[in-house]
Specification:
Blueprint (H helix, E strand, L loop, with lengths): L1 H26 L6 H13 L4 E4 L4 E5 L6 E4 L4 E2 L3 H5 L4 H9 L15 H7 L47 E4 L29 E4 L1
Antiparallel strand pairs: 1-2, 2-3, 3-4, 5-6
């Protein structure tokens, strides 16, 4: 039941989120999404004092007072600052060239993912509620998955007998209280016949 409650919580969140995004896309009057408009406006404000030097009809050099010069290539749709290629939105260098060329709308240089029409298509489907678990039809041939078998962990911190000895340390072999032999304990003593084969020694480290 807790898993079903978690799934229902995620579904309800997606339903509310989809409804809100659908309303935003339906009420939008611009070409780009509000988030893209905010980024482009910030890039416009940052490029007011930059200088543009044409190389050709499609390539331009943009110089700023705090950054190095970059080259904008409209034919390849690239800028050497790489922001245009990474974000998919015109960087300040591209916007400065477009402003100098008297472009009023730079939306044609944006990725299609930032168009409001793309946003409408993404959220045109509704998220519907799930039926009640009592109404669900459970197949009779389902395999019952049981939890894995786990050994009960002993209290306290487990001993580390496999670590490398520090300089000056030496191992002390425990003496068996049954037969008096070293490198074995009473639980794995061969004299008691409780185990067959070679017994294993328990080593305690003395600091």
């Amino acid at each position: 039941m807790p898993i079903l409650m978690l799934i229902e919580y995620f579904r309800a969140t997606m339903q509310q989120w989809s409804f809100q995004k659908r309303n935003v896309a339906a009420e939008a009057k611009r070409t780009l999404t509000p988030w893209a408009e905010t980024i482009i406006q910030a890039n416009k404000n940052a490029c007011n004092n930059w200088m543009v030097y044409p190389i050709s009809n499609s390539r331009f050099v943009v110089k700023s007072f705090t950054h190095k010069s970059v080259v904008v290539d409209f034919q390849q749709r690239t800028c050497t600052c790489s922001r245009w290629q990474i974000d998919g939105l015109p960087c300040g260098h591209v916007i400065k060239v477009l402003t100098m060329s008297r472009y009023k709308d730079c939306s044609e240089f944006d990725f299609k993912a930032y168009f409001i029409e793309t946003l409408r298509k993404n959220y045109e489907e509704s998220v519907n509620p799930l039926p009640s678990p009592l109404e669900s039809k459970i197949p009779g041939d389902l395999m019952i998955v049981k939890p894995p078998m786990m050994e009960m962990r002993q209290p306290g911190r487990p001993r580390n007998i496999d670590r490398i000895l520090s300089q000056g340390e030496r191992p002390i072999w425990q003496e068996c209280s049954t037969c008096g032999k070293f490198r074995q304990t009473r639980s794995d003593c061969t004299s008691r016949g409780s185990r067959s084969g070679i017994s294993q020694a328990t080593v305690h480290i003395q600091r």
